[in-house]
Design a protein that fits this description.
EC number: 2.7.13.3
GO molecular function: ATP binding; protein histidine kinase activity
Pfam family, one: HWE_HK
CATH class of the largest domain: Alpha Beta
Helix content: 40-55%
Organism: Bradyrhizobium icense
Number of strands: 20
Catalytic activity: ATP + protein L-histidine = ADP + protein N-phospho-L-histidine
CATH architecture of the largest domain: 2-Layer Sandwich
Strand content: 15-25%
Length: 549
């Protein structure tokens, strides 16, 4: 039998090793394939984005090259370029002519704007706040013409962008370099409009290093970033050139928003750099599919198939082993059952002896010499009845303990209908249940049989609680008989005094006290919960009563 088990174990080990090796190889291959596919897709995407940006920068260069000795105050400078700029089909949002006007040209520029039919021909600041033209001493950059002319754009001409936080520095730098320059991402058309870029190309007069103005084209970010491909393996973001901790992200509708990069967020799988408007832009690529998880799932499938085949082979050998082991197991079960039966009989004998010893003590103490036979007979019957009740409750729970409130049933103690019980319904051990059952009977049986001094039966309250933290919890029990006194309450018997003051506290490892107040008789018992519950006894009982396997 040992040899057969060794053979089955060896076959299982070989099968597990081969399955694990195959799963590992598949996992590595899937990761490599996914990595190559993602890298190629990202390279293609970055190349397409760069081509798009190059086309748009070429449009700006061509448009600036078509200008010949422009007149800065004209409001129709883009008219000759309309066919050229639309021929490129670069999907710009707005193309504009921003003239660098000297203080002496401002009045003529206003008249030109008014004659061109723009809705607000006044020379004003970029946010439509009025400018005092008399205080202007240096040239300013004013929007003089744009395409397309629509209700959304007709109000833009006349704005000066010198003090704009983004466009102003961009125009100054483009004038200094003499080359097309792109701005930082800003909202287009309006404050909450789509986020995009503005590309400005300076227009230089012949023989002058100072530009006469700028041809600008604005583009939305989403088309530039090619973010509208739902079937791609990745999502692309644009790193904010002004703050490395921010990213421009496009949602499913192509709306671009600026989002902060929080600490702990995953880093982009790949970062690519593209050039546009004399600047470098960083594109971050996040893989949409978790390649590691996908490879892991595939490896799990391969491993499962290998383990299944291993299980089939081992099962053939195991079937033979099972037939041989079944007979041996039946013999072992029979032996175990006999041992368990012996243990159960020994435990039953032990508990019967304990119960008989308790009953013998009850009979001896109750019927001691000099006792009133009628009272003794009543007490003896009640005490034995209380013991019978607790044994019945323990048998119903297979000696796993008794609910404390069950010890206050009318069949167990007298005057149960006058007792108010308050406390958690904890399960006490068999030993504690026997002591507490006799204790409750003794307390209830000695309450007055007739009327008290105030003409009422005593009102009895039995209250208990558990306090403290594990494992040092403490059980507190309090019995209080109201409307009673030392004169009305039947005197405790010798057995009752021994039970109340010594037997019950010692059985629970606690202390007890009894006393009279002005209006009641009180008995208090305090004991550690570890002896009240006695998990050791309960575990031993559970082991004996558990079915044989």
């Amino acid at each position: 039998m040992v040899r057969l088990g060794f053979i089955i174990g060896f076959i299982a080990l070989i099968g597990v090793l081969l399955s694990g090796l195959a799963a590992y190889r598949v996992h590595e291959q899937e990761l490599a394939i996914d990595g190559i596919a993602l890298s190629r897709a990202i390279d293609v995407h970055a190349s397409l984005v760069q081509d798009r940006l190059t086309e748009r920068e070429l449009l700006a260069r061509v448009a600036s090259g078509l200008f010949r000795s422009p007149s800065v105050v004209k409001a129709n400078m883009l008219q000759p370029l309309r066919s050229a700029i639309y021929a490129f089909k670069t999907d710009f949002v707005v193309a504009s002519w921003i003239a660098r006007l000297k203080p002496g040209d401002l009045a003529a520029a206003q008249a030109e704007l008014k004659g061109a039919g723009f809705t607000n021909p006044t020379i004003r600041d970029f946010d439509d706040k009025p400018l005092d033209l008399r205080t202007i001493n240096n040239p300013i950059d004013v929007l003089m013409d744009l395409e397309p002319r629509s209700p959304d754009t007709l109000g833009f001409p006349g704005r000066a962008y010198d003090r704009h936080s983004v466009i102003g520095p961009m125009l100054a730098q483009a004038a200094a370099t003499g080359k097309p320059l792109a701005s930082d991402p800003i909202p287009l058309l309006r404050q909450n409009g789509p986020i995009g870029l503005v590309l400005a190309s300076p227009i230089l007069l012949e023989g002058s290093s100072e530009p006469a103005g700028f041809v600008t084209f604005s583009y939305e970010l989403a088309p530039l970033m090619l973010t509208d491909d739902d079937r791609s393996l990745f999502s692309v973001v644009l790193k904010d050139p002004g703050d490395a901790n921010d990213e421009y992200v496009a949602n499913d509708q192509g709306v671009v928003t600026l989002q902060p990069v929080r600490q702990g967020d995953p880093l982009p799988s790949v970062v690519r750099t593209v050039t546009f408007g004399g600047r470098d832009w960083s594109l971050g690529y996040y893989a949409k599919n978790n390649a590691a998880q996908r490879a892991q799932q595939t490896a799990i499938v391969v491993a499962a198939i290998g383990l299944a085949l291993t299980g089939i082979v081992c099962g053939l050998f195991g079937y033979v082993a099972y037939n041989n082991l079944r007979l041996s197991r039946e013999i072992q079960v029979r032996i175990g059952f006999e041992r368990r039966l012996t243990a159960v009989i020994d435990e039953l004998n032990h508990r019967v002896k304990n119960i008989l010893a308790v009953i013998q003590s009850i009979v001896t103490r109750t019927l001691r010499h000099g006792s009133d036979m009628d009272v003794a007979r009543e007490l003896l019957i009640g005490r034995i009845h209380a013991m019978s009740n607790v044994v019945t409750l323990l048998s119903e729970s297979q000696w796993q303990g008794v609910k404390l409130k069950g010890l206050f049933e009318s069949r167990a103690i007298p005057h149960a209908d006058r007792i108010v019980v308050n406390g958690p319904d904890i399960a006490v051990s068999a030993r504690a249940a026997q002591s507490l059952s006799l204790l409750f009977f003794e307390l209830a049986s000695h309450s007055d049989e007739g009327l008290s001094l105030v003409g009422k039966h005593p009102h009895i309250v039995a209250n208990w609680e558990v306090s403290g933290e594990e494992p040092d919890t403490v059980f507190h029990f309090r019995w209080e008989e109201f409307n009673t006194s030392a004169a009305t309450r039947r005197e405790d018997s010798d057995f009752g005094l021994i039970l109340l003051d010594r037997v019950a506290p010692e059985a629970l490892g606690g202390t007890a006290k009894r006393y009279f107040t002005d209006v009641s008789y009180v008995y208090e018992l305090t004991a550690p919960m570890v002896t009240v519950v006695d998990m050791t006894e309960r575990d031993r009982t559970g082991e004996i009563s558990a079915p044989v396997r």
